[in-house]
Specification:
CATH class of the domain at 40-85 and 195-253 and 266-383: Alpha Beta
Protein name: Beta-lactamase
CATH architecture of the domain at 40-85 and 195-253 and 266-383: 3-Layer(aba) Sandwich
Radius of gyration: 23 Å
InterPro entries: AmpC-like, Beta-lactam-related, Beta-lactam/transpept-like
Order of helices and strands: HEEEEHHHHHEEEHEHEEHEEEEEEH
Helix content: 25-40%
Pfam families: Beta-lactamase
Strand content: 15-25%
CATH superfamily of the domain at 40-85 and 195-253 and 266-383: DD-peptidase/beta-lactamase superfamily
Shape: globular
Domain Beta-lactamase-related: 36-361
CATH topology of the domain at 40-85 and 195-253 and 266-383: Beta-lactamase
Largest sheet: 7 strands, antiparallel
Length: 384
């Protein structure tokens, strides 16, 4: 066999192998997508966006169903959602940047940071620290609301004491949205930048992501309409407040106090694909594509359980209930009919993002069934 003949034979073999693997991959993807569509039909899902990361690389992303029921518009990968409580991790990441810079300590008295007294009246001598607030062990609750800091400010609300639970700060756990809206105000005080701008400049732009907390600064044509399910009428109703404009509030903005209008606790708008890139940064302990967002030490702190009761760290949850046999790190979100999940396995270096803009919500072991079923399906199809 001549050298030229041997080379031709080799190229044919390589091409045949590549074609075979490509064909198998296409079949595997088609089977995975068929299963996702079956899940959507069974659980009455309006639209679904997903992304899968393996070994630090985005290996799959796709969108299914409708972005807008009334207009019969199909959901696309570029479309963005208000992702609800996964947003807390962006606020926590911002705080850890200040910790890395030596501008703040997680053990600092939160009262001194936020600018008004934050003390449980039942335990007036126990300091409520920044870490307690970020880990939901502060003893603070949402009973007086959380979209305005007046709720817990003793100078603004005569019922401020109702914002505190009966247990001593640091010795109990209760998930609380007010905690992170206050954290957003602290970010403004530490940075001198408006909260939404800080996150944009120091996290989103550095990662090359499109999104943000300020509705007015984003392309409204990319918003996926969120739908709340009316079980009695068996129909979906659009939730217009999900993307309510903030222009009037911004005109009267007070830095370090008006922050909840952007909802640091739940107001991030971003696509599933870009959220997966952000997730990869946390999976890689603060680093993405050669750039570092937070230190390795700070990334580990965020992912370390403070509360064994719920497995909560600093806006990152540890759970073995999402994928059987796998301990995952991440967060979920739910608001206005949306359900979202961002979970990764730090040792095996895979992660999955799932977002639905509306479904018939059912739950198993604390997780929305659409999220659980979709995450498991994607894991079995693309990771396992």
């Amino acid at each position: 066999m001549t050298t030229i003949t041997s080379l031709k034979y080799y190229l044919i073999v390589v091409l045949t192998i590549c074609t075979t693997f490509s064909g198998l991959a296409q079949v595997k993807t088609a089977e995975a997508e068929a299963e996702l569509k079956s899940i959507m039909k069974k659980l009455e899902v309006v639209g679904l966006s997903v992304a899968v990361v393996k070994k630090g690389e985005l290996i799959y992303s796709n969108s299914f169903g409708l972005k807008d029921i009334e207009k019969n518009t199909l959901l696309e990968n570029r479309d963005i959602f208000r992702i609800a409580s996964i947003s807390k991790s962006f606020s926590a990441t911002s705080i850890l940047q200040f910790v890395d810079a030596g501008k703040v300590s997680l053990d600092d008295d939160f009262s001194n940071l936020v600018g008004f007294k934050v003390r449980n009246p039942k335990y007036p001598n126990t300091v409520i620290t920044l870490k307690m607030v970020m880990s939901h062990t502060s003893s603070i609750n949402d009973s007086e609301g959380y979209f305005n800091l007046d709720a817990i400010n003793p100078e603004k609300n005569v019922n401020w004491a109702k914002c505190y639970n009966n247990y001593e700060p640091g010795k109990g756990y209760r998930y609380c949205n007010l905690n992170y809206n206050m954290v957003g105000a602290v970010i403004e005080k530490l940075s001198g930048e408006r909260f939404d701008q800080y996150v944009k400049h120091h996290i989103l732009d550095r990662l090359g992501l499109y999104g943000g907390y300020c509705v007015d600064s984003l392309d409204a044509s990319r918003f996926a309409t969120l739908y709340e399910y009316d079980a009695a009428a068996r129909k979906f109703n659009a939730a217009p407040l999900a993307y309510a404009p903030r222009s009037e509030d911004i005109r009267n903005y007070i830095m370090g106090y008006s922050t909840p209008i952007f909802s640091p606790t739940g107001g991030m708008k971003i696509s599933a694909t870009d959220l997966a890139k952000y997730m990869t940064m946390h999976m890689n302990l603060g680093k993405y594509k050669g750039g570092r967002i937070i230190s390795k030490k700070s990334a580990k702190i965020m992912q370390t359980k403070v509360s064994d009761e719920e497995g909560y760290g600093l806006a990152i949850l540890t759970t073995a209930d999402m994928i059987p046999g796998k301990v995952m790190k991440g967060h979920t979100g739910s608001a206005y009919g949306l359900y979202s999940a961002m979970f990764f396995q730090p040792d095996e270096k895979f992660g999955i993002v799932v977002i639905t803009n509306g479904c018939n919500p059912t739950y198993t072991r604390g997780f929305n069934d659409v999220l659980r079923a979709t995450v498991s399906s994607l894991y079995n199809s693309f990771i396992k």
